[in-house]
Design brief:
five-stranded mixed beta barrel; globular; 8 helices
Length: 270
């Protein structure tokens, strides 16, 4: 059995949560802490980071589990944190140590209403916490709410572009291939969820727990309850080709407008 040496114990005791968090953020993203900007886009997709890199002219950094890009001129960073609620909780907790002014999730979700179409957007005002991860941060009885301030800017940008969107509740799950489970689908019908994803409830709840304003611009990428509506490799490729640039552009514009209003002392303050 190998014992921990005295100097190693001292090092562990001196490591505060902030130091550990910032060290982990640098290691996972391959970025220096000083490069992180006050407004942050987060996403599940490497292609979104690449698209932002092309827009900003800044390089992509790659860490052990994530990719990122930072633009000081725009005061915006973007991070691809991966997929799923544990990674969602991790990135918000790590970002909390940089004290961002706003975090906007550029994600995709499955639309659960018959009138929804691929390419519509969802304004998630609340999320159902069925993923489990968020229970480690807030009691189960606490609702999962997105930042009203951020969502107001999200809606204004969508409306300015005259795009179709829906507002309501998104169900966040950790269950894969639920489309094949009749009991699960019956539960969705009973609770009247409008969309489904794997991160929103975690992001919103951890953001609330860690004092990080978190919102989301969600693209409806599939219609899993309709015949032929389940996401596939080919359908996903078409969605990326058609909507990636637009969603990134909208995300950047939303955060820039928030910056402008904050600098002018206009609108809501966090």
């Amino acid at each position: 059995m190998t014992l921990i040496k005295n100097h190693e114990i001292d090092e562990i005791c001196e490591m505060t949560s902030e130091k550990l968090g910032l060290d982990t953020l640098e290691r996972y993203t391959g970025s220096r802490t000083k490069n992180f900007q006050p407004y942050v886009l987060i996403t599940n997709f490497p292609a979104y980071v690449d698209a932002f890199s092309q827009i900003s002219g800044k390089p992509v950094t790659k860490g052990t589990t994530m990719t990122a890009c930072h633009c000081e001129d725009l005061k915006i960073s973007i991070i691809n944190f991966g997929i799923g609620s544990p990674m969602g909780a991790l990135i918000i907790e790590l970002l909390s140590y940089t004290k961002p002014k706003a975090v906007l999730f550029l994600g995709m979700c499955g639309g659960l209403r018959k009138e929804y179409q691929v390419g519509d957007y969802l304004n998630p005002v609340a999320a159902i916490r069925e993923e489990g991860t968020s229970f480690a941060y807030m009691p189960k009885r606490c609702p999962s709410l997105s930042s009203f301030v951020i969502q107001r800017y999200v809606c204004e940008e969508i409306e300015r572009r005259k795009l179709k969107y829906h507002s309501g509740v998104i169900h966040t799950t950790n269950v894969r291939f639920w489309e094949l489970k009749e009991k699960f689908k019956a539960m969705l019908a009973e609770e009247r969820s409008q969309a489904i994803d794997m991160e929103c409830a975690t992001l919103f709840t951890v953001g609330f727990a860690k004092y990080v304003p978190v919102g989301a611009l969600m693209l409806i990428s599939d219609l899993p309850l309709k015949r032929g509506g389940i996401k596939t490799k080919s359908s996903t490729k078409k969605v990326f080709e058609k909507y990636t640039s637009l969603q990134i552009e909208m995300g950047v514009e939303i955060l820039r407008k928030m910056q402008h209003d904050a600098e002018k002392g206009l609108g809501y303050q966090f």
